[in-house]
Specification:
By secondary structure, the protein is mainly alpha-helical. Helices cover 68% and strands 0% of the residues. It comes from Kineobactrum salinum. Keywords: Membrane, Transmembrane, Transmembrane helix.
Length: 85
């Protein structure tokens, strides 16, 4: 569930980035329209929420890594190998 929320927030960030670019091109420096500025605020809020979710997921152990090289240079031998030695 947490990974789905992270993906949704990333897609929302991309949508906000696109809308900010659109507003920037359409408004062409019109000082009465502040849509680009509001889009930046939304994007900042989404980014902070995304970072908070990632920190929460890592702290709770829901997000992590399981790379083979993290086991160390000598993984523990299985009991079958110990019995044959």
């Amino acid at each position: 569930m947490l990974k789905v929320a992270i993906v949704v927030l990333m897609l929302a960030l991309l949508a906000s980035l696109g809308s900010g670019f659109y507003f920037l091109m359409v408004d062409q420096g019109d000082k009465t329209r502040r849509r680009t500025f509001h889009s930046l605020g939304v994007r900042l809020g989404l980014a902070i929420t995304l970072a908070g979710l990632i920190v929460y997921g890592v702290a709770n152990g829901q997000l992590g890594h399981s790379n083979p090289w993290d086991r160390g240079p000598n993984p523990p031998a299985s009991q079958e190998q110990e019995a044959t030695d």
